[in-house]
């Protein structure tokens, strides 16, 4: 019994759905390995293409199954967006990226940073950290201790910081200003911003918001 | 596509970690506190920002203040910085939480 009606044909995308022409491939013979007439049990030559198997002899065979859009295609842009938003480096990544290339172990990290150099999602230096540096260098011991209270740190951590502050207090006022200029102003330029107080009320760096939007301390160093 | 997805997922942990928002500032603070960083290494790191000799001297003295301390003291200072940055991250996620 010849497999007259059987055969496998490549699917062709048409307006009404996926259509297949039975005459496109050589027909298979007989009962293949105990199967029904005309159905080829062997692996198709092009497994990546959609094939239609039919026992009906007609010029066109309509496939009813529509191919579903891959959800994988949706995940990729979502992941890219998540990566962009999560990347806390933002524009600041470019600053220290070149130095990382000297160390081969950090190459992957450096490349990752480079990818997100132009995504300034969270690229605002921590206002609390900047505020702490300013107070550590310029404020009195008592005021500095009071400013740390809001973070509820352990007593030994505060005591340790005050020990270092005692030593730093021995530096001249001009020396402390110069260190402050490096640690606060210069490093804030990695985001192309002056060290700004946050405009959000809940952030610890800014109990009273600056009316200028810029820390008064930063204005000393802009000249 | 699956490989690209896998690579993206592998990249996420490298990018999504709590930080101060400025890697350069974080590195500077870390190098300031670390007892393993010498005065020479510290000044070399800050060299692009040091314009005059008196600034270099100030930076040296500043670093020496940290090197004078015990390892335990410096560990506590480091702990304080971590608390500070993490509290910033917490408040950044929910900025409507008002501080007392």
From TrEMBL, chain A:
Protein's name in the database: Uncharacterized protein LOC110347408
SUPFAM superfamilies the UniProt entry points to: Uteroglobin-like (SSF48201)
Question: Where does this protein reside within or beyond the cell?
Answer: Secreted
Gene Ontology CC annotation, any one? extracellular space
Keywords of this entry:
Secreted, Signal
* Lineage top rank: taxon: Eukaryota
Region (Disordered): which ranges? 18-44
Q: What is its main location?
A: secreted
Q: Which gene encodes it?
A: LOC110347408
* Tagged with keyword Secreted: yes
- Homology family: Belongs to the secretoglobin family. Lipophilin subfamily.
Instruction: Report the PANTHER family cross-referenced here.
Output: SECRETOGLOBIN FAMILY 1D, SECRETOGLOBIN FAMILY 1D MEMBER 4
TrEMBL record, chain B:
Q: Does the keyword Oxidoreductase apply?
A: no
Entry's localization field:
Secreted
Q: Which InterPro entries match?
A: Secretoglobin, Secretoglobin_sf
The answer to whether UniProt assigns keyword Amino-acid biosynthesis to this entry is: no
Got a GO cellular component term for this one?
Answer: extracellular space
Which N-terminal stretch is annotated as signal sequence? 1-18
Q: Which GO terms describe its biological process?
A: androgen receptor signaling pathway
For this UniProt record, give its keywords in alphabetical order, as a comma-separated list.
Secreted, Signal
Among Pfam families, the record links this protein to: Uteroglobin (PF01099)
Q: Which domain of life is it from?
A: Eukaryota
Primary site of residence: secreted
Name the record gives this protein: Mammaglobin-A-like
* Organism lineage string: Eukaryota, Metazoa, Chordata, Craniata, Vertebrata
């Amino acid at each position: 019994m010849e497999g007259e009606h059987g055969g496998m044909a490549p699917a062709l995308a048409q307006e009404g759905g996926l259509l297949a022409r039975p005459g496109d491939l050589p027909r298979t013979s007989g009962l293949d390995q105990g199967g029904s007439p005309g159905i080829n049990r062997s692996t198709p030559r092009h497994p990546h293409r959609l094939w239609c198997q039919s026992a009906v002899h007609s010029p066109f065979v309509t496939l009813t199954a529509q191919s579903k859009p891959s959800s994988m295609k949706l995940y990729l842009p979502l992941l890219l967006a998540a990566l962009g938003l999560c990347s806390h480096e933002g524009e600041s990544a470019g600053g220290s990226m070149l130095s990382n290339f000297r160390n081969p172990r950090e190459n992957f990290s450096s490349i990752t940073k480079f990818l997100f150099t132009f995504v300034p999602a969270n690229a605002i230096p921590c206002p609390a950290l900047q505020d702490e540096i300013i107070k550590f260098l310029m404020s009195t011991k008592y005021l500095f201790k009071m400013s740390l209270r809001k973070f509820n740190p352990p007593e030994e951590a505060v005591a340790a910081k005050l020990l270092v502050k005692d030593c730093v207090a021995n530096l001249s006022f001009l020396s402390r200003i110069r260190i402050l200029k490096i640690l606060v102003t210069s490093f804030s330029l990695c985001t192309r911003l002056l060290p700004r107080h946050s405009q959000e009320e809940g952030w610890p760096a800014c109990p009273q918001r600056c009316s200028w939007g810029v820390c008064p301390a930063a204005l000393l160093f802009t000249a | 596509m699956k490989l690209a997805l896998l690579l993206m997922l592998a990249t996420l942990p490298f990018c999504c970690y709590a930080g101060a928002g400025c890697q350069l500032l974080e590195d500077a603070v870390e190098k300031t506190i670390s007892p393993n960083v010498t005065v020479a290494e510290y000044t070399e790191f800050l060299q692009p920002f040091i314009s005059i000799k008196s600034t270099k001297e100030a930076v040296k003295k500043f670093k020496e203040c940290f090197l004078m301390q015990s390892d335990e003291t410096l560990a506590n200072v480091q702990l304080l910085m971590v608390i500070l940055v993490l509290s910033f991250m917490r408040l950044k996620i929910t900025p409507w939480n008002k501080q007392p």
